[in-house]
Amino acid sequence: MSANATQHTLLPQELIRLKRDNQSLPAEEIKAFVQGIADDRISDAQIGAFTMAVFLNGMSREEVVALTTATRDSGHVMQWSDLNLPGPIVDKHSTGGVGDLVSLVLGPWVAACGAFVPMISGRGLGHTGGTLDKLESIPGYDPYPAPERFREVVKSTGVAIIGQTGDLAPADKRIYGVRDVTATVESIPLITASILGKKLASGLDALVMDVKVGSGAFMPTPEKSRELAKSIANVATQAGTPTTALLTDMSQPLAPCAGNAVEIVETLALLRGDRPNSRVMQVTRELAVEMLIAGKLAGSREEALTQLEKALTSGAAAEVFARMVRELGGPSDFMERSEHYLAKAEVIKPVYAEQSGVVQRIDTRAVGMSVVELGGGRLRNDASVDHSVGFTDIVEIGEHVDSQRPIAMVHARSEAAAERAAEQLRAAFTIGEGTASADTLLQDTFRGEAL
Ligand code: URA
Which residues of 63-84 are buried (b: 16+ CB within 10 A; e: fewer)? Predict the structure, then answer.
């Protein structure tokens, strides 16, 4: 035991008692407690009592920073300085959504502008799609390369999107597991430390966070989304990683498709420069601007936009994506022959609304759950995913639908599955008379401030 460790005198139950009684916790004590979680010296019961005490009494900014850095340091923290990379290490994280393929376009796009992006992504969670599940639609793509290989790909390509390995922030794995079964997930301090503990373990110079708001958002209300965005930007910045959080609309699917292979098809089109002003590209561009500025690759928004435009229209961003796929085991001609490689559903058919009219509202969460039920996500965490299923050609709020214009195309394994999904989709769309307009896409920007 190190000399430092012997200075921590609080027993776990004493630390829990302090938080239970709404006292503040010293950073060193939080650090020792989290290390105890990673080392299995703290029991699940103690974690549960601690998370409930935090849930009920909250935490100060200093406490959340201490919980975040302790979570980050509970496992391996990546270092990049020995590679002498000629650009900043930057990344983005999102609270997740439906049709949210932002990471797939953003990573290669900013890498094509000179950034290095070691992106650790997740699988689908609840109604939200997972970047890893989408990438695994590509035959051969290996989302779990050895750590040295990951570093090599980031160095040679500028971006590698992979899955989380067990040695990254292991304390969070235990804490999150206990929160899940003790009704303590919905706590801003705990969510902040959980997300950032993992994200900051990849050794970033800057981070951009996309916090969603609306019917498909992880947070239940706009106020809570806003609170989380502020908390993440400030805590990460105070922990030493300059961070900006954008509040973006998820009151309808972001891209006009939701699923796995179907979102890869859309990603390729966007990287080729099709639909540069679509909603998903607008959000991606805003995040990219923040990343280039935070990473000091651009001095202003105008400069960042010019670089991004060039990287897209020259084909450089698409080329980076193709190289990442190739380096991580996918086909070398994926961009040219993607339709040859991506799985196609047995049944592809239009879904019509029961009445004609204008789309007024979309229950985005229900659209995501319908993709899960089609087989595109998981009902159990050990289940496999059907990459071929989902929806495409999803109409937006304010668009007119009738007997000629479907709400979407459903991609399913069978007629019966298509029919069930069609029913669910119809129920998720509110069609009415009169005009309707979508919520503002970029609702707010929070630049982190250290105290
Ligand atoms: N995602 C995380 O990684 N942690 C949370 O607490 C919530 C969402």
Answer: bbbbbbbbbbbbbbebebeeee
The answer to the question of residue 182 being in a domain is: no
Residue whose CA is closest, atom 5 of ligand 1?
Answer: 191
Q: How many domains does the chain have?
A: 2
Q: In which residue are the tokens 């969603």 written? A: 212
Are 294 and 387 in the same domain?
no
Distance CA 108, CA 114 (A): 10
* Start-to-end Cα distance in the chain: 33
Global pTM? 0.95
Which residue, of 337, 352, 379, is where some domain finishes?
337
- Torsional class of 418: left (φ above 0), alpha (ψ -120 to 50), beta (otherwise): alpha
- Active-site annotation holds for 403: no
Name the CA dihedral angle for 264, 279, 408, 402, rounded to a multiple of 10 degrees.
Answer: -160
For the chain, which ranges sit under pLDDT 70?
1-8
Q: Tell me which residue range forms the domain holding 301.
A: 81-167+197-337
Q: What is the pLDDT of residues 253-293, one digit of tens each?
A: 999 999 999 999 999 999 999 999 999 999 999 999 999 99
113 lines ligand 1 (CB under 6 A): no
Which bin fits 248, alpha (ψ -120 to 50), beta or left (φ > 0)?
Answer: beta
Whether 92 is catalytic is yes
Whether 93 is a known active-site residue: answer yes
Q: Which of 94, 185, 210 to mutate to test the pocket of ligand 1 (most atoms within 8 A of CB)?
A: 185
